[in-house]
Amino acid sequence: MAEIKTPHLRKTKTSSQLIVNGKPFLMLSAELHNSTLSSAKYMADDKIWQNMKDMYINTLLGSVSWEQIEPEEGRFDFSNLDAIILAAREHGMKLVLLWFGSFKNALSTYAPAWVKKNVKRFPRVHALEAGGKRRTLELISPFCEEGWKADARAFAKLMAHLRDFDGEHSTVIMVQVENETGLLGDSRDRSKIAEKKFNEPVPADLLQHLRSKKNTLHPEFQKRYPHIGAQNDTTTTPTWKEAFGAKDLIDAEEMFMANAFSRYIQHVASSGKREYPIPHYANVWLNFDDPSALDLDGIPVVVGGGDKAGIYPSGGPCPHTMDVYLFNAPALDLISPDLYLHDYETTCANYRHGNQALFIPEQKRDEKGARRIWSAYANYLALGCSPFGIDSLQAADCPFTKHYRLIHSLRRQILDAQANRPEDMLGFFFDDFIPGQKIKEKSWTKTMGGFEVIIERAFVFGKPGPGAGMVIHQGEGKFLCVGWGFNVSFQSTNPKSTFTGILHAEEKEVDANTGELSTVKLLGGDETRSGEFLIMPNEDPDYGGFPIAVTIPARTCVAECWAYSLEEDEEDC
């Protein structure tokens, strides 16, 4: 089989990995502010490139807007983009380009002026306000054929240019098609063409797919639309209301818009894929069903998305509409959540549906967000996790710097386990204790190599500190422990075992060039509580006034330990 030279996704045991220049590539990614990549001069003058490298970032996400590359119809200008790509290449940085074409944050604000001003050719979405008044939105209707045709031509030109300008170098490794699609302010488009289409039958191919795959569709779809494919459903050509509006008309209106937006995106994405088939993805402005599940911490609940279509973008690829996108837009390689306030574990699991690869294009850039990436990489085999607005932080103050430094040093081991032994990885995190606030502490457990591996917050005499990391089973009871602020203990899964403990432990350091581990010192006694559990301390353990400093501060944050168990006969006891 001929080697694929362009960046691509390669199937692994339970997911996919990004292959760049013929090798698996772990993105230590971050997203720039929306306008930063619009100016190569700004990127250079503000020394952004070096600051990003100092954070151990290897992949930057930044926007390329339709209005910038095609300011006049048919006239394309890639001069700024070329300068950006050359600068990224010079600094050893990979790029993920975000195509702000027809849709950005459920609006069309990045479309060219010649598109925005011509409502005859590019009709807008209309929404109903309170009182039934119709309002024109800054949003191209997804039913506008001229819209997707013009967008697709521009996107194809972009991808063809990337192929010619960067194909030999693979500086650009992925492309996002549009941004957070959907409709805000109403549950569906109320324009004349949309009104007509809403009363037409659901496309037969989509309905047949959903019915035939009912048992493997996303659990959130099945929960919201349990009647799809029911035995007593004999209607062959139902309307949107008949097919999806059994519980609430808004459910039908949202599916109607999901079908429209996903087909629009397929037109655009497929035009680019034909020119240069690097991975394409769509990102998601998430919804919520239960606001109590959000991590708001004093932030207004509306920031979390919304519980009704139209409060969050109606028709975007949320978990319950994802299967429509997967069917209608096969040119997309994956669908990726913008993950700020939702439960991290639940959202990661939602977007691993069907063993699709996980990529988080936007997330919190604070310490709380940084701790969670360990779970994404280890438990959900993430391609990358991208704190948003990274360029307005300095490396010395950025919470991601220390996390990315450690993950970068062990990227070979992580990539190997992701591809070949995903069952042998466990990622975890522990947040700060907040004074006066009760935290329901949980341990993280997973069975690996014949042992139940138990991760708990690191032991201290005083105030418990935060922690994060991962454990990778390396075979025959040997475990690689990475991170800080946690204890790891083991329990044999052999019912005949009478004792489980730590046989041996060593602190390790990593060779920056080869990735090989070497021993710094042996760990025993206090560091393993005499073989009971290995302590991976944080940087400043709290001794709580205890006179003996039994826990030393974290140093390399890398260790190997060997678990063992005993089986005793009666004569041995």
UniProtKB/TrEMBL annotation:
Cited Pfam families: DUF5597, Glyco_hydro_42
The name this protein goes by in its record: Glycoside hydrolase family 35 protein
Record flagged with keyword Hydrolase: yes
Species name: Periconia macrospinosa
Domain DUF5597 positions: 400-534
Keywords: Glycosidase, Hydrolase
Boundaries of every Glycoside hydrolase family 42 N-terminal domain copy: 47-244
One GO CC term, this protein: beta-galactosidase complex
InterPro entries: DUF5597 (IPR040719), GH (IPR017853), Glyco_hydro_42_N (IPR013529), Glycoside_Hdrlase_35 (IPR001944)
MF terms in GO: beta-galactosidase activity
Top-level taxon of origin: Eukaryota
An annotated GO BP: carbohydrate metabolic process
Protein family (similarity comment): Belongs to the glycosyl hydrolase 35 family.
Lineage: Eukaryota, Fungi, Dikarya, Ascomycota, Pezizomycotina
